[in-house]
Specification:
mainly alpha; single chain; two-stranded antiparallel ribbon; 347 residues; 15 helices; 2 strands
C-alpha cells in the first residue's frame, strides 16, 4: 500500500518517494509490527484460550493455564503490516493467505486439540498448495552448495521437494515451541539471516553477481515480509521471556514455520533451511522422524532419547529452562555464522 502511494504521490510531492524505498519499508515493517504486537498482546491476553499442558512434557504444569494462541494475534498483525509495507503482488498475496490458513488451523487446535493425523494431513495440504504457488508452472532456478552454476528444475521436482520442506518446517517449529522463548528466539535468528540474504545478497544485483549467485528481483520484497514477522516475534518475546506470561501456541508456531519455509524457498537454496533452522530441525524434526518410523514401519531408533530434544536435556541432563534457551540460541547463532560463509562464499 505504501509503495503504491509513493508511486502515485511522488510526482505531486517529491518526499513521497521515500515510500518506494525498500529499506524504509523494511524499517517501517519491523517497527510497526513490533510496536502493535507489544501493545496488543496484553490487551487481549484475557480472551485467549488457556494452555492445557502437554502429556509427558517436562514442566507441563508451569505452562498449564497460561494464555496461549498468542500467534493468532501477532500473525494477524503481521498480515496487516505486510499488506501496508510490502509492494503488492498477487503471488505474495496468495502466500499470505496460506500463512493465515496455517494460523487458523493452529488456532483451532489450540482450542479443540485436533488429532495428530488430521493436523499432519492438513499441514501437508497447506504445504502442497503453497509449493504449487511458489514453484509455478515453469522451471525454477536454484543454487546449491559448492556448485557455481545455478540449476533449473522442473515443477515436477520443485513442487514435491518444496512440499516436504514446508511440511518439515511447520512441524519442526511447532515441536520446538515447548520452552519459554525458545521457538521465538530461534525463529528470530532465522528471519534475520533470511532477510539479510534476500535483501543484501540475492536481492542485490551487484552483490549477487560478485558472489556468482542468481539475482532475484523480488528478493527485497520478501525481505520486507521477513522483517514484518521479525517485529511481531520481538513484540511477542517481550511477554514470552522466561517465566512467560503467554504462549504463541500452534497458531503462531505453524504459521511461523510455514513462513520460514517459504523464505528459504524464495532464497533459491533449499539447504538454507539446515543453516538457519538447524537447531529447530534437530530439536523437533528428529522426533518427528522417530515417531514416523515407529508408527508406520515399526522401526525403533533413538529409543533412549526423549523428543523434543529440549525435554531430554531438561529431564535427563538437568538443564534448566534458561540454559536450554541460551545454549540452543548460541548454537544456532554459531551454526548460522559459520555455515552461511561456506554456503555462499566457498563455491
Amino acid at each position: 500500500m505504501l509503495f503504491l502511494l509513493g508511486e502515485v504521490l511522488q510526482p505531486l510531492y517529491g518526499p513521497f518517494r521515500l515510500f518506494t524505498s525498500h529499506i524504509f519499508l523494511a524499517g517501517a515493517a519491523i517497527v510497526l509490527s513490533g510496536a502493535v504486537t507489544w501493545l496488543l498482546l496484553p490487551a487481549v491476553a484475557s480472551r485467549l484460550p488457556r494452555d492445557r499442558g502437554r502429556e509427558f512434557a517436562v514442566d507441563t504444569e508451569a505452562a498449564r493455564g497460561k494464555p496461549t494462541s498468542a500467534g493468532a494475534v501477532f500473525v494477524v498483525v503481521y498480515l496487516v503490516v505486510a499488506l501496508i509495507t510490502v509492494p503488492w503482488d498477487l503471488h505474495h498475496l496468495v502466500v499470505l493467505a496460506m500463512v493465515l490458513l496455517a494460523m487458523a488451523v493452529g488456532s483451532l487446535d489450540d482450542r479443540t486439540d485436533l488429532s495428530e493425523y488430521w493436523l499432519g494431513a492438513i499441514d501437508f495440504a497447506i504445504a502442497l498448495l503453497t509449493a504449487i504457488v511458489l514453484c509455478g508452472a515453469g522451471p525454477n532456478e536454484v543454487w546449491l552448495p559448492f556448485v557455481t552454476a545455478p540449476l533449473m528444475i522442473s515443477p515436477w521436482i520443485c513442487v514435491p521437494g518444496a512440499t516436504v520442506l514446508l511440511w518439515v518446517a511447520i512441524n519442526a517449529t511447532n515441536c520446538t515451541d515447548g520452552v519459554d522463548g525458545l521457538s521465538g528466539s530461534l525463529a528470530v535468528i532465522a528471519l534475520i539471516t533470511l532477510a539479510a540474504l534476500l535483501y543484501f545478497v540475492v536481492g542485490h544485483d551487484q552483490v549477487s553477481a560478485y558472489l556468482l549467485l542468481p539475482h532475484y528481483t523480488d528478493g527485497a520484497t520478501w525481505a520486507i515480509s521477513a522483517f514484518a514477522m521479525l517485529g511481531c516475534l520481538i513484540g511477542y518475546l517481550w511477554y514470552n521471556a522466561y517465566p512467560s506470561e503467554l504462549l504463541m501456541g500452534d497458531a503462531g508456531s505453524r504459521a511461523v514455520g510455514l513462513l520460514l519455509g517459504i523464505l528459504v524457498i524464495k532464497s533459491g537454496n533449499p539447504f538454507m533451511l539446515l543453516i538457519v533452522s538447524g537447531v529447530l530441525l534437530v530439536n523437533g524434526g528428529t522426533g518427528l522422524l522417530k515417531v514416523a518410523l515407529l508408527r508406520f514401519f515399526k522401526i525403533s531408533i533413538l529409543h533412549n532419547i526423549r523428543f523434543p530434544l529440549h525435554d531430554h536435556l531438561r529431564h535427563r541432563a538437568g538443564w534448566s529452562t534458561s540454559q536450554v534457551l541460551v545454549r540452543f540460541t548460541l548454537l544456532q547463532a554459531i551454526i548460522t555464522m559459520v555455515f552461511i560463509v561456506a554456503l555462499i562464499k566457498i563455491r
